[in-house]
Structures are given as C-alpha cells and as structure tokens.
C-alpha cells in the first residue's frame, strides 16, 4: 500500500498552497466581513485552469484524477471555504455535462466553462425539496420544439455569475416512480423569465452567493435536454453528487486542517500561569483528538478518491468520507475555538469563521443522515466491504 502522492500531485499541492497562503488567507476575513466578492481570486483560479478540473483535455480542461480533485477543495477550504464553493458547483456541473451531454452540448459549453470564460452551477434544490429530490415541483412542459419551465430553485451557488445552469425538472409529473419523469435542462441564464430573486442569508459560506431563482415561463429549445433523452435527470444528478461528496469531504479536511493549525499555533503562543498553554495536559488532549480525527478523515477521503480513479462506483466510499470528514470539521473547529478561549469567539481570529463554515459540510451534497443510509445500503448490497 502506498499512502504518498506522486510527483505531479505533490507539485500541484505546492502550487495550490502557495496560492492559498499568499493570496487567499491574508484577505479572507476582511473580504468576508465587508461582503466583497473575491473577483481577484476568481481570476487567479481561472489563470490556473481550476475551472476545468473535471473537463476532458480535448475541451481544454485539466481532467484531474480524483485525488488531485479533492486536493483542490482541501487546500482552498483551508484558506476560505467560500472560494472552494465557487469551484465546487461549477466543476460538478462540468462533470455532468462531460459525462452525460450530447456532442453538441459538450462542444457548445465545455471549452468556455473550462477556461472560466463562462461560469455554471447546478439547480437541484427547491424550497420544498432538498434531500427528497423526487419531490421537486419545477416542471418543463413540451411546446413544439421547446420546453417551457415553471418553478423555483433555491440555495443555488454561483447563481448571479452563471452563464448556463443545469436545472432538474419534471418533464413527466405523472411518472411513477417519480424519477422516471425527471430530466435536466441546460438553461442559458439570459433567457427571458429566468430571474435571480434574492441572495439567501447564511451563517457561514461567505464569499460566494447562494440564491433563490424563479423560472417564469422560461422557454428553452429541446436541444438543451442533457443527453438528449428525457427521464434520466435523477441518475445524472446523482452521478454528479457522487463526486460532489468527494469535493465536500476535501473541503471538510481543509476546514479541519485550518482549525488544527490555528489551535496548535495559538497554544504555543498563549501563556497562562507562566508557561505556554500547550504544556497543559488538557490542551494536549484536545490537540491529539483533533489531529487524530483529521488524519483519519484525510486518509478516508483519499481512499475514496483513489477508488473513484479506478473507475468504480463510490457511493458508499464517498458517503463514508463525506460523513466522517464533515463531522470531523465540526468537532475540530469547535475544539479549536475552545483552545482559543475568549479569543475564539472574536472575529479578529480565524477560528470563528471555521466554526461557521463547518456545519454546511454536514448538509451539502446530502445530509449526513442520508449519508448513513447510503453507506448502509452499500454495505447490505455488498458494493462496499469492510474488513
């Protein structure tokens, strides 16, 4: 067994760390407090080709292996989790288009998405349907050679910057089971009737917008049907969410790493009763717990990513990684706050931001309760074995 990166992965991580340490961490707190959109950082992500990490090379993308894919989100979230979110939804959408799109759809969108000239996200969640995607009410009715879309989507990352948005709809609301009547349409966001109504207020996950979108009689041509065949939308969405869970696991590791680094450094600098608090056993035990859980989460994430690189389905493995790593991010950020004492509650220190960002990791790409059912089904079916 080899637990080390290859030379390309090491060089790639070094480039990412340089970006994060020099250009993201120094501005993250101030830009978050002022609500400043990270335009300059987005430009640097574009220059590095990071908008094309899931896009095939033939369309101008990097087409990274899945271990390198998770490294992107780990390193960016270590600096500012919202920046990782900008890339997360974009590259999930690109992955879906590259795997499921028609030749025409790929040629139309992927080169411009990979370069960052165009941006995207993914329109799944609705005010009344998040975990239960089969419960969506957004419909697309056939009218000649067009579809007419009616409905609302919410919590849409990149909504104000997306040029195209894959939108999950019901093309046959009467289908049973419901997923057989679900499709994805690639909606040009300049289409009349497509309206970004409002930005959602959030505890954390700042830097990128999360919006509610209203689709009022949005008319799109039949050529926007992802893959060109109705009834495959649910499978297409779930395949994207499978790799999206590796993204969330990577982000969780990044938050936990940042929390650990902050706690360790502060414990060495802060003195009490004449010595650094890192000399006290109570603090040492907290550091040991954070470090152990962090390293376990990291190895589980890389294990799942390496399995994905083999070409196998990774429902269970990605679910395990996302579940464990996100819970680790939550516990690590809380313990880091406790080690900081009163300063951990201050906006002058980074740990309060990690604490606000971490809970979303237990929700995004499927709640952790859903992850446990996904894992259990994988165990019972035998697609994942333990021991």
TrEMBL record:
SUPFAM superfamilies: Acyl-CoA dehydrogenase C-terminal domain-like, Acyl-CoA dehydrogenase NM domain-like. Residues 122-218 form the Acyl-CoA oxidase/dehydrogenase middle domain. GO terms for molecular function: acyl-CoA dehydrogenase activity; flavin adenine dinucleotide binding. Signal peptide: none annotated. Keywords: FAD, Flavoprotein, Oxidoreductase. It catalyses: a 2,3-saturated acyl-CoA + A = a 2,3-dehydroacyl-CoA + AH2. Pfam families: Acyl-CoA_dh_1, Acyl-CoA_dh_M, Acyl-CoA_dh_N. PROSITE patterns: ACYL_COA_DH_1. Its cofactor is FAD. Residues 231-379 form the Acyl-CoA dehydrogenase/oxidase C-terminal domain. Gene3D superfamilies: Acyl-CoA dehydrogenase/oxidase, N-terminal domain, Butyryl-CoA Dehydrogenase, subunit A, domain 2, Butyryl-CoA Dehydrogenase, subunit A, domain 3. Belongs to the acyl-CoA dehydrogenase family. This is Acyl-CoA dehydrogenase. It comes from Gordonia lacunae.
């Amino acid at each position: 067994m080899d637990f080390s990166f290859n030379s390309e992965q090491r060089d790639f991580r070094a480039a990412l760390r340089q970006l994060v340490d020099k250009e993201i961490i120094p501005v993250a707190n101030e830009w978050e407090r002022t609500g400043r959109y990270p335009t300059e950082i987005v430009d640097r992500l574009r220059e590095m080709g990071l908008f094309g990490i899931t896009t095939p090379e033939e369309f101008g993308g990097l087409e990274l292996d899945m271990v390198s894919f998770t490294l992107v989100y780990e390193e960016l979230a270590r600096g500012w989790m919202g920046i990782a979110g900008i890339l997360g939804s974009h590259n999930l959408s690109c992955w879906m288009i590259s795997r499921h799109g028609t030749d025409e759809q790929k040629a139309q969108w992927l080169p411009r998405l990979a370069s960052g000239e165009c941006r995207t996200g993914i329109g799944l969640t609705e005010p009344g349907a998040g975990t239960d995607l089969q419960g969506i009410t957004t419909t697309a009715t056939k009218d000649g050679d067009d579809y007419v879309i009616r409905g609302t989507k919410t919590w849409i990352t990149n909504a104000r910057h997306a040029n195209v948005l894959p939108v999950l709809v019901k093309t046959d609301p009467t289908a049973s089971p419901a997923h057989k009547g679900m499709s994805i349409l690639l909606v040009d966001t300049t289409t009349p009737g497509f309206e970004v109504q409002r930005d959602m207020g959030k505890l954390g996950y700042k830097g990128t917008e999360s919006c509610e979108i209203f689709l009022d009689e949005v008319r799109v041509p039949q050529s926007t049907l992802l893959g060109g065949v109705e009834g495959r939308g649910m499978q297409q969405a779930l395949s994207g969410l499978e790799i999206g869970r590796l993204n969330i696991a990577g982000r969780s590791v990044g938050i936990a790493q940042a929390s650990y680094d902050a706690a360790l450094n502060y414990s060495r600098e802060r003195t009490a009763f004449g010595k650094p608090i890192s000399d006290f056993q109570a603090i040492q035990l907290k550091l040991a717990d954070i470090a152990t859980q962090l390293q376990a989460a990291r190895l589980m994430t890389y294990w799942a990513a390496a399995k994905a690189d083999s070409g196998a389905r990774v429902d269970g493995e990605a679910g395990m990684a996302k579940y464990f790593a996100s819970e680790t991010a939550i516990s690590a950020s809380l313990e880091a706050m406790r080690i900081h004492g009163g300063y951990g509650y201050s906006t002058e220190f980074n740990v309060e931001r990690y604490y606000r960002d971490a809970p979303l990791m237990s929700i995004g790409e499927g709640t952790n309760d859903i992850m446990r059912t996904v894992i259990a089904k994988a165990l019972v079916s035998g697609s994942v074995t333990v021991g």
